[in-house]
Amino acid sequence: MTRLSLIWLILAAAFGCDKPGDRNEELTYLREILPAELLDFSHLDLPSRDNIAKIKTADGAHLGLRIYPGQPKTHGGIRAEVSLDYPFQTEDTVRYTWKFRLPEDFESDVPQNRWWVIGQWHDQPDRTKDETWETQPSYSPPISIGIAEIENRLAIGLSYGTTLGNHKQAVSDPIPIQRGDWYTAQADIRWSQTENGSIELSLVEIPESATLMKGPNMNNAYQHYLKVGMYRHPGIQSENWIHIDQINVTHLTTSKPAKR
Length: 260
Description:
Elements: H1 3-15, H2 24-30, E1 42-45, E2 52-57, E3 60-67, E4 78-84, E5 93-101, E6 116-122, E7 143-150, E8 153-160, E9 170-171, E10 175-176, E11 182-190, E12 198-203, E13 206-214, E14 225-232, E15 240-253
């Protein structure tokens, strides 16, 4: 069983679904923010219905993901995320896009600014080698997008680089954002365990936000998966929502020769 399958089994039990492991309710949420062709790769990673809501507006629907004081941990952490395990090979270049919004009443962790992740790409066991989560060492994500409040402005920042051993990640300059505004994150990633690796991250609405980082970005040779939402330091005690919409993933280049 994969970790993403396990996520839904746990979630189904927490939701009190009629049939343990049933995906029907999960899919009603995921269909609000994902195209049909990506649903099979996607799951919710959160402890209960208290962490998620469908939000209807005049422009359509999107998801709200909530973290609150005292909520149960999921996989050892305080989180409410959508996981997307999109397949690729090393040296492929993949584009990830999604829209996000932090509400006008979003409470940051200023002045402590403890770690708070709203997007990450995480390694996982290599299924081609029959590896499992029980034997897989635990590493921090090699690519993550965090939030903080700097000089009275909310901002995001990119952390980049493998997290094996004592490797130190590179950290981008902060990109200021406004509470209440929607942003479109676009990340073009060349996946590699060598210096060929790179990411170009931008917020489409802020042209000057484009950030390029280079170097190895895979903790192992197996596909890393995207997680969008919130995952934060367990000591943060505020209740927070993040709004998510229009997640999409496409290949820009592939390392495999074209089939004839």
